[in-house]
Design brief:
This protein is α/β, with parallel strands linked by helices. The protein contains 15 helices and 24 strands. The chain has two domains: 4-248 and 448-470, Aldehyde Dehydrogenase, Chain A, domain 1, CATH 3.40.605.10; 252-437, 3-Layer(aba) Sandwich (Aldehyde Dehydrogenase, Chain A, domain 2), CATH 3.40.309. The protein is globular and about 70 Å long.
Length: 471
């Protein structure tokens, strides 16, 4: 990666560079320019100037832009996947999956925008009205600021860039500092595309200073952020009068009913709890198990977890690689040790080697333990014994978060109650709460955030409705 920052199509050389080291082996894998508030302001001004051309562009050009980037990603799939693995330690098989999902997100965004439209209004529907030609249509908001996290450093960028750009906006992207090269390579595909809108995409790297300058500016109309609750609260307070979409934390839970297929439940729960080393907003953290099948399920869950391969993220068969940094690994061990002191039992011996933290299944967990009350964001899952669905329901809802919840159940009446009474942005029946399809609306309630992602729903967030009446 060159020591450059892209402001639209114009690279600006920076002398000061930050180094990104692999969380797996500590080797330097990328560098990025160190930006400041002035760089952020410059990017916003360039984006503001690019809006007029972006709004005047044809939908055909913008859709072709996204599809061109998708095609280039297919051609560079292995290189981009290796870059993700280098920077964040994601197992290579899952990095490839992320590239594939990104391609789908780009394609879905283009296809969705082709069919999004306004509608006509019957202005003579009421006695106070009269016959007119009245309709509304969707128009771009102007400038969008996108701030993205480390755990999905490609596809979560796509979930912001693709809807924003195909809707005719200009975007300033501040990617995670943990994956600067992934963002660079992705943005470069946009900027160098034959269908690119001039200066419609800028990238600035940086920390809180850069983020604050972007968020507090009067130029952007939309702030789209994925990250932690504390940062989300800061953004909400400093953004001012503009649209703010916040995808924040989670504390995903599931209920295993006595009617459930326990083999299916154990298999899917082990995947949902430990994929990406538990570094997923909808990672399964709490499992409420009916008392009648608690011991059997706990045994099956431990057996399934033992099958997971932990090791080098560069091996195709590896399921779990390292946590993102030493602090995350230390925090995970502290979670487990604290729970054991409170009376919980580890079904698998807790084991940490540097940033490698092996999956941990905790039993005999109670509702007052911190390990189930707070977001752990690590490969730790807790089993809680309950007497019935009615016992589990309020406990699942008793969280500051409400991103996704699920139940494993073969009782239609209880499944319907789960859909109606569980308090979350997404409910899954007979699978892990970690299940997400990129075409869906995705987002939460309570401290899990505001707004929704998914191409159609993000486009709605990143457009304005204009009402027209012709008398």
């Amino acid at each position: 990666m060159n020591a450059m920052i892209y402001f639209g199509s114009t690279p600006s050389t920076k002398e000061n560079l930050s180094e990104r080291k692999s969380p797996y082996n500590g080797k330097v894998v990328s560098t990025a320019p160190i930006c400041d508030a002035q760089d952020a302001k410059k990017a916003l001004i360039i984006a503001q100037e690019a809006v007029k051309a972006a709004k005047a562009s044809t939908l055909s050009q913008r859709c072709n832009w996204l599809l061109d980037v998708a095609q280039k990603l297919k051609q560079n799939r292995e290189d981009i996947a290796q870059t993700i693995t280098n920077e964040v330690g994601k197992p290579i098989a899952y990095s490839r999956i992320e590239v594939d999902r990104c391609i789908e997100t780009l394609t879905l965004s283009a296809e969705t925008m082709r069919t999004m439209h306004g509608e006509t209004i019957n202005t003579d529907a009421m006695a106070s009205g009269k016959k007119t030609i009245s309709f509304f249509r969707r128009e771009s908001v102007g400038v969008v600021v996108a701030i993205t996290p480390f755990n999905f450093p490609l596809n979560l960028v796509a979930h912001k860039l693709a809807p924003a750009l195909v809707a005719g906006n200009a975007v300033v992207l501040k990617p995670t500092p943990e994956a600067p090269l992934t963002a660079y390579k992705f943005a470069k595909l946009f900027i160098e595309s034959e269908f690119a809108l001039p200066n419609a995409l800028s990238v600035v790297y940086g920390d809180a200073e850069v983020g604050s300058a972007l968020v507090s500016s009067d130029i952007p109309r939309v702030i789209s952020f994925t990250g932690s609750v504390p940062v989300g609260e800061i953004i909400a307070k400093s953004a001012g009068i503009k649209k703010v979409s916040l995808e924040l934390g989670g504390n995903a839970a599931t209920y295993i009913d006595k009617s459930a297929d326990l083999d299916l439940a154990a298999s899917r729960c082990s995947l949902g709890a430990f994929v990406n080393s538990g570094q997923v907003c909808i990672s399964l953290q709490r499992i409420y198990v009916h008392a009648n099948i608690y011991e059997e399920f706990a045994s099956k869950m431990a057996q399934e977890t033992k099958k997971l391969i932990v090791g080098s993220p560069y091996n195709d068969e590896t399921f779990m690689g390292p946590l993102i940094d030493d602090a995350a690994a230390e925090r995970a061990m502290n979670w487990v040790e604290s729970a054991i002191k409170e009376g919980a039992v580890a079904l698998l011996t807790p084991y940490r080697e540097g940033r490698m933290f092996h999956p941990c299944v905790m039993a005999n967990v109670t509702d007052d333990m911190a390990i189930v009350c707070e977001e752990v964001f690590a490969p730790i899952v807790s089993l809680v014994k309950v007497n019935s669905f009615d016992d589990a329901l309020p406990r699942m809802n008793n969280s500051l978060y409400g991103l996704q919840l699920s139940v494993f159940i073969n009782d239609l009446a209880l499944a319907q109650r789960a859909i109606n009474e569980l308090d979350a942005g997404g409910i899954v029946i007979n699978d892990m709460p970690t299940l997400r399809f990129d075409i869906q609306p995705y987002g939460g309630v309570k401290l899990s955030g505001v707004g929704r992602e998914g191409p159609r729903f993000a486009i709605e967030e990143m457009t304005e409705i204009k009402s027209v009446v012709i008398c």
